[in-house]
Amino acid sequence: MYFKYGDYKHADNTVTLSSFNQVVSYDDRGNKEKVTKTMLLDGVLIESNQADMKTAIKNLETAYLKDVFVAGLYHDGTPAVQSPHTLTRGTSDTGIRVLSLNYPKGDGAEYATQRTFRISLQTEDTSPEGVAEVELKEFSEQLSFVGDGGSSSIAINVLDGPPVIQYISQQTHQRITQSGRAVNRYNNYPEPPSPIFPSYVIGPSTSITRISPKFDRSRLTDWGVTWSYTSIHATAQIGSPHTGSG
């Protein structure tokens, strides 16, 4: 077998795939968010003299600075066949990333006739097979109830003696604030939910805020919006916030 990174082909049987990890990440709502694949390669360059070794090292480092579409192990044969241990740029947001390239040894014949190297490669894919494109990433909403509709009183300070409590109304209004935040993963802003008490909303107090998305490598992510509605009621109300599940 041999390993190939783009157009750069390693000599047969000089690269070992020491590990190949596939990790599935989930968002706060339990949806599959992305699949991260990481491979660790241990290999060796073999040359007959230091001049050729210098050239081989330079070619290796130059090759792994390039952006490529495919990197993986190939089975011997004509034509060669990709093994399952292959990374592809495909739908990956990051492409194939070279996390590290180092030379872990410096003893013996190192740099004279051989040079041991270690390379770590990785891809992150947010839309692989089996991962649903769930747009809503975050959702939270709360209802704040101020006042219970009961009587109202004030305390009047007097010149001499304790304050006097004076009742000024038998019933009072209740103020309810409905506020929240939602974030879409890609593409566009989520729509804020409707007011829970639409007939009692104080129009001038309504606030809708759009938060600019973040640029994550090759695309814009995390399109956020916040909202706030305030309503006034003559009697105490009950209600529950939206859950964002629909």
Question: Could you describe the 3D structure shown?
Answer:
The structure is a single chain. This protein is mainly β. It has one helix at residues 50-63, and strands spanning 2-5, 8-9, 15-26, 32-46, 70-75, 81-88, 97-102, 114-125, 136-146, 152-156, 164-169, 174-184, 207-211, 214-216, 219-221, 223-233. The chain folds into 2 domains: 2-125, Pnp Oxidase, Chain A (Roll); 136-233, no CATH class. The protein is 6% helix and 49% strand. Strand 14 (214-216) and strand 15 form a beta hairpin. The model has no long low-confidence stretch (mean pLDDT 90).
Q: How do the strands line up in the largest sheet?
A: 2-1-5-6
Per DSSP, the total helix count is 1
Q: What structural class results from the helix and strand content?
A: mainly beta
Outline the biggest β-sheet.
4 strands, antiparallel
Percent of residues in beta strands: over 45%
Secondary structure: number of strands: 16
- Assign the CATH architecture of the largest domain: Roll
The ordered string of helix (H) and strand (E) elements is EEEEHEEEEEEEEEEEE
Q: Averaged pLDDT, please?
A: 90
For the record, the count of structural domains works out to 2
Shape: elongated
Percent range of helical residues = under 10%
CATH-defined fold name of the largest domain: Pnp Oxidase, Chain A
The first-to-last residue Cα distance is 51 Å
Radius of gyration: 32 Å
Topology (SSEs and partners):
Elements: E1 2-5, E2 8-9, E3 15-26, E4 32-46, H1 50-63, E5 70-75, E6 81-88, E7 97-102, E8 114-125, E9 136-146, E10 152-156, E11 164-169, E12 174-184, E13 207-211, E14 214-216, E15 219-221, E16 223-233
Antiparallel strand pairs: 1-2, 1-5, 3-4, 4-8, 5-6, 7-8, 9-12, 10-11, 12-16, 13-16, 14-15
